[in-house]
Amino acid sequence: MTIITPRHDWTREEIAALYDQPLDALLGQALTVKRENWPDGTVQKSQLLSIKTGGCAEDCGYCSQSAHFETGVAAEKLLPLEDVVAAARRAKENGADRFCMGAAWRSLKDRDLPKVAAMITAVKAEGLETCVTLGMLEEGQAEALKSAGLDYYNHNLDTSREYYGSVITTRTYEDRLETLQRARQAGVKLCTGGILGMGEGRADRVGLIHELSQLSPHPESVPINMLVPIEGTPLGSSAPISVIEMARAIAVCRIVFPKSWVRLSAGREGMTEEGQALCLLAGANSIFVGDRLLTTDNPGIDKDEALLSATGLAAAGHAEMENGPRRTTLIGGDSA
Ligand code: SAM
Ligand code: DTB
Ligand code: SF4
Q: What's the CA-to-centroid distance between 173 and ligand 3, angstroms?
């Protein structure tokens, strides 16, 4: 009998063994965990808005917004509050219950903090969960964001510790972990995951999941992005990763993070409906909705309605989210 409760002592070998199973065994296990912990089988919807686009000082090799690469994305100023509120209202009409505001910053500057805090408060007042992704945080900033009404901080580890330096040179893995810790200490929930298809190997995907599993408690949200190749970036002509490999990674996340939202994040525009359905069946229970991610396209509302209707997976209601997932899951035995 295998007991699947949130564990922080996974070894890389154990995670690799899950990952390498025959696909039917892996998906079967993930589905059992999903059904036990998320019996409603619903899909949570988040919507993104780029509140400050382009001109970023970091050199993340996948990103359209880095000032280091010629991608055609121009640097813009921070959006005015009223534009953000209007976008949040549209997101709610689209059925989103979480609104995620992204800024192309290396780190949050104290001079911008009051403006972002006002956005968080205003979005929260619209009845949406709030999430921001603003780069690195300094001491005290997470507390200010929390007081403004912040629910989630998104800050991705992106890949394994070993592969990180092949993708980004302007900050370290430890910098990333420090910001996650600051957000958590302030009582903000964590949204942290990674990108697949950056030329990494399966061992790096296992390494990423292992790193995330050591966060205690686990991140409440785990976004798994498929690289959206951006012309002009070092990773712009990376060979695409297969949807089956993506589904494997999602299934492993579902098993390792039984009580976390696992989001099928960027990359859906490049996937077929069947590919996306496979990822949902593998255990993803959250998606980004709306026509745009930050600087790239996302399937629109019609395609998403067709996807959810084809799979019979309804959008999650707010009440279900607040109650959170169900308790302990057992595979092959009785409930504990
Ligand atoms: N500047 C902040 C940061 O890096 O934390 C926030 C914005 S950044 C665009 C948020 C995340 O989007 C990145 O950490 C990365 O995981 C993801 N991302 C960016 N470009 C992507 C791409 N082309 N394909 C897939 N994911 C991408
Ligand atoms: C995450 O993991 N994915 C989102 C969000 N967190 C901030 C961003 C995806 C960006 C995709 C490329 C773009 O639109 O620029
Ligand atoms: Fe800047 Fe974030 Fe893009 Fe990196 S991923 S270049 S930090 S906006």
A: 14
Instruction: Tell me if 147 is assigned to some domain.
Output: yes
- Decide: pTM greater than 0.85: yes
63 annotated active-site: yes
Neighbouring residues of 13: CB distance < 8 A, sequence distance ≥ 6: none
Instruction: Collect contacts of 308-312 with beta carbons under 8 A, ≥24 apart.
Output: 308/43, 310/273, 310/277, 311/277, 311/280, 311/281
In short, whether 267's Cβ falls inside 6 Å of ligand 3 is no
- Tell me the C-alpha distance between 74 and 67, whole Å: 9
* Residue 26 belongs to domain spanning: 12-310
Q: What is the pLDDT of residues 102-138, one digit of tens each?
A: 999 999 999 999 999 999 999 999 999 999 999 999 9
Identity at 140, one-letter amino acid code: G
For residue 46, tell me if it sits in a domain.
Answer: yes
- Give residue-wise pLDDT tens across range 224-244: 999 999 999 999 999 999 999
Contact predicate 64/73, CB 8 Å: yes
In a domain, 329, yes or no: no
Task: Output the CA 199–ligand 1 centroid distance in Å.
Answer: 16
CATH number of the domain within which 71 lies: 3.20.20.70
pLDDT digits over 189-218, tens only?
Answer: 999 999 999 999 999 999 999 999 999 999
